[in-house]
């Protein structure tokens, strides 16, 4: 099973296994990663699953949709590498992806 590395708000690295086809939100929720609130349940209608991808992965994921980009404008301190965990669908190619949970979700 492929894995990604998630840095939680306490700066602890957590290895997270994922099934290809699931979202970062689904994988991190199953792994018990702290700090991702996902108040809307993964419906892209809030910004409380804000994560920051490692810049090395720039260009390897689909660009944010218009709806996700709009929601990211509500995130606390977004960066050029900010994404909503509910909107990033993982594939085998994302083995080794590193991301950080935003320190504040709102």
- Find the CATH superfamily: Beta-grasp domain
What fold name stands as the CATH topology? Answer: Ubiquitin-like (UB roll)
Helix-strand category: alpha+beta
Report the top-level CATH class: Alpha Beta
Number of strands: 5
Helix content: 10-25%
Q: Return the domain count.
A: 1
Uncertain spans, ≥5 residues at pLDDT below 50?
none
How would you sum up this structure, described in words?
- With 106 residues, this protein is an alpha+beta fold.
- The chain has one domain (3-101): Ubiquitin-like (UB roll).
- Helix content is 14%, strand content 20%.
- β1 (3-7) and β2 (13-17) form a beta hairpin.
- It is globular, with a radius of gyration of 12 Å.
- It starts with a strand and ends in a 5-residue tail after the last strand.
Notable characteristics:
5 strands; 2 helices; alpha+beta; globular; Ubiquitin-like (UB roll); 106 residues
Q: Could you give a quick summary of the protein structure above?
A:
By secondary structure, this protein is an alpha+beta fold.
Task: Tell me the layout of helices and strands.
Blueprint: E1 3-7, E2 13-17, H1 24-31, E3 50-53, H2 66-72, E4 82-84, E5 98-101
Parallel strand pairs: 1-5
Antiparallel strand pairs: 1-2, 3-4, 3-5
């Amino acid at each position: 099973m492929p894995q990604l590395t998630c840095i939680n708000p306490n700066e602890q690295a957590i290895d997270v296994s994922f099934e290809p086809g699931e979202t970062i939100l689904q994988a991190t929720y199953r792994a018990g990663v702290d700090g991702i609130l996902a108040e809307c349940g993964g419906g892209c209608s809030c910004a409380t699953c804000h994560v920051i991808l490692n810049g090395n992965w720039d260009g390897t994921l689909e660009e944010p949709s218009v709806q996700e980009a709009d929601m990211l404008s509500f995130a606390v301190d977004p960066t050029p590498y900010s994404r909503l965990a509910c909107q990033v669908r993982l594939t085998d190619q994302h083995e080794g992806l590193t991301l950080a949970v935003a320190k504040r979700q709102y």
